[in-house]
User: What shape does this take?
Amino acid sequence: MAVTKKRAVATNGLPDISYETIETQLTFRHYPGDRFTHSDLGLSVADVRDMYRNMLLQRRFEERSAQMYGRQKIGGFLHLYIGQEAISTGSVYALKPGLDSVITAYRDHGIALAVGMSSNECMAELFGRVDGCSNGKGGSMHFFSKEKRMFGGHGIVGAHIPLASGIAFAHKYREDQGVCICYIGDGAVWQGSFHETLNLASLYKLPVVYVIENNEYAMGTAVDRAAAETDLFKQGVSYAMPGSLVDGMDVFSVCQSMRDHVALAREGQPSLVEIRTYRYRGHSMSDPGKYRTKDELEQKKNEDPILRLKSYILENNLITVEALDVLDVEVKAEVSASVTFADESPMPPPEAIYEDVYTQKDFPFLTH
Amino acid sequence: MAELQLREAIRAAMVEEMDRDEDIFLMGEEVAEYNGAYKVSEGMRERYGERRVIDTPISENGFAGLGLGAAMNGLRPIIEFMTWNFAFVAIDQIINNAAKIRYMSGGQFSFPIVFRGPNGAAGQLAATHNTSVEALYSCFPGLKVISISNPDDAKGLLKSAIRDDDPVVFLESEFMYGMRGEVSEAEDYTIPIGKARIAREGDAVTIIGHNKSYWRALEAADMLAKDGYAAEVIDPRTIRPFDWDTVIHSVKKTNRCVIVDESNPFASVASEVAFQIQARAFDDLDAPVHRVTAKDTPAPYAKSLIEYYMPSAEDVYHACRQVMYLN
Assistant: This one.
């Protein structure tokens, strides 16, 4: 930062006095699409195949979820991640399974499947059944898996942002070298919790990466109608945090950026990543989508992260089209099986209502 | 028995537990370098270092949530609010995350955390600094709520709260931090959560009071004693879960009850206690349950008004005489 004395006349209605200027240079890292090959990332063909399968699984799982919602097998809200799958899959490939932690907001199916939660437990949760990942107590917005270190699924916008820093705090406190990735939507940037927590994370040097999944709309409000500064990656500047901008439609760009930021976190440097993406479906199932044009939607579909990876695979002769078709059939079968599993899983009995409220087994609940 | 100030008893509980368990840390505004806004944590930073006694910026929502995340990931935080009035900006973390995530995760993630600090009125501080929050937090299944009235209970219950695997709202009082009292020196002294204390036995009327209101209840009992009546005084100590058995047993003996509660009256602790008494001991009541609460207004600044606003021993005494049909 340079402080320069200037003798000049102020404009814009400011008083006509001499003043000094403070000039500062900001640098951010940019990860555009089509910049990295799988070889650059050290990924094997098997890794690429697994990435493709994982993204496809998220897509097919949610397509079936939407169908099941229409058949009223699923209640409440259902927020689909379709279009954003490169972020979940790409970032998970930057993590150490069993050590690192993830936490997200309510659009959580993709991350859950990316960290290895099963289609069965996820579909059963959507159905509100006892075999669901949250025993049928959480539903679509509240997927949790302690085993996979998936800390939720959170329905209140911005409320999980401080939790992520707490999870990272515990990693640091125990010196276990673990990091936490916290995914938030572009809308959550305007909650106070975001700003309070970025400051705390930076102040305490917590091993956390905050990932803004900027899908352009907070429900129906476009980013430029909510944000005075639409470059969301710049929000870390006030909190002395490095920031990056990433093309979220390219799984390799996501993966490389997250590896870099996770490495920073492991060294005790929290950071902020804005990943630009797009959701093809509505905010939830009841969204008429009048805030965007069909042209915009169609144009964005040309950037589909799954089709993009498929093209990459075929252009580079990594996997045959026949083998990809077999994968598709396999994934569809897995999702169909999860629907059967969920349908056959029992609904929680009435007495389950008192379970899981407290660790205390004999808590005297009021019953009248 | 050792005579300690309330603040010293709270500190002793934290120190004993932090000596015992490395996973416990203390976080809050001014808890470390400043030694605590009310000197509760005095000397703790020197004892444990900045790793375990941690100052925060003025970001209650942020550090309350940070504590909860740390609890989800295996630590046992003690989060101090300088006063519970300041926790209103963190209330989403307490009501939505602390109370509900265990349930929504199907019991996978627990919150062994204590949120503690002074609650209720503390004199001429005007309305925003004089709120009683026990009824509010007791509304939410998933939380436990403790409100202490003396150093011995403070130590025994805070140690239990820190060891508890559920989130505990622990309510103290600025007015009582300097109060001295005998504290058990028993090794590893704990008091079970959810058990009331019968402070004085009697048969004429049951007076229930927690936190500062407990002392108004005792003063009223002294006044009644001069009239020749023995009041039974109960300090519930834990608001959620409430010890109904002790209260109902007492009311069945005295047949009359006055509840002292410095909350605003609507949907207060007194409201629920009165409801439960009529539901569980209707046939044993010789008079309607009476309550003495703060006035149904925000807390005022003027000395004359704040004194009028708060439940007084005289108010309690007269309420007792009313349920005893002596007025």
Observations:
- The radius of gyration of chain A is 22 Å.
- Chain A touches chain B through 52 residues (CB under 8 Å).
- The mean pLDDT of chain A is 94.
- Residues 45-70 of chain A form the longest helix (26 residues).
